[in-house]
Amino acid sequence: MKIIVCIKSVVTAAQEDRVNRAPGLMELNPFDRPALEAALRLKDERGAEVIALSMGPAAAGPGLLDAVGLGADRAVLLSDRAFAGADTLATSTVLAAGLSRLAPFDLVVFGTRTADSDTGQVGPQVAARLGLPFIGSVVKLETIGGKIFAERRVDGFIENYEAAFPAAISIHAGFGVCRDLGLYGLADAWAGERVETLGLTDLGLDPATVGEAGSPTRVLSMKKVPRDHRCEFIKGSAAEQAEELTRRLIEKGLLRS
Q: How many domains does the chain have?
């Protein structure tokens, strides 16, 4: 069984208004830890091969080494100047190409979201590009006879799904306790050449489809939101409540009339 875990290195802490991806200031996305844990549990149970895959600058390398230290067999970094400035669409293009390079595989595992952009779009987008069935927000899983059986938590409900391999899933943050990164594992990861780097040419991608050039998303503006919390009850009929709520949201600039 071959499992590929797509992970991301994120800024260690938001100290400024600008994102600083300098070496030493990035760490493994905390929402990807449950995804890696799920893959490693399958490895423990089934003897699977686990590969950590990431797109990012060279500074993302230590996050991949952490994944190897936790138990991944090897890691692949998709890194090229042409990939810079990518939105989720361009990111999914690169990750899909990286996965195709690593094929055949049985299962692709994602975290539900990232600590920086928080979109939750990349997993489903990659699955769609590769034509894979996708199950999101998985809290329990097992594999039997070439299929994955997953329990999914969403909107307060529990849903059960099954899908034939190859498939893609995202793991809910409440999946379970993640193993710790020990000194021996970390030392072993850093001791050898465990991270392979692939660029634009290696993946055979068109520069127009990746990075900023391949990203239709534009952030038009950003502003800090005041941290004041209030709870108000709007009285009246359902129609009156809806009308009053809409008026207040427009008044606060959260909706356009």
A: 1
Q: Where are the beta strands (DSSP E) in 118-177?
A: 134-144, 147-154, 157-164, 167-171
Q: Residue 36 in contact with residue 46, Cβ under 8 Å?
A: no
For residue 232, give both structure tokens: 């108000």
CA distance 165 to 153: 21
What is the rounded distance in angstroms from the CA atom of residue 122 to the CA atom of residue 99?
A: 13
Are 150 and 161 within 8 A, CB to CB? yes
Domain with 209 in it = 2-214
Asked if residue 243 is part of any domain, the answer here is: no
DSSP 185-236: HHHHHHHS--EEEE-HHHHT--GGGSTGGG---------PPP---------S
- The predicted-structure confidence for 132-184, as pLDDT tens digits, reads as follows 999 999 999 999 989 999 999 888 889 999 999 999 999 998 898 888 887 77
- The answer, as to whether pTM is greater than 0.90, is no
Q: How far apart are CA 184 and CA 156, in angstroms?
A: 40
Q: Which residues contact 196 (CB under 8 A, 6 or more apart)?
A: 74, 75, 76, 77
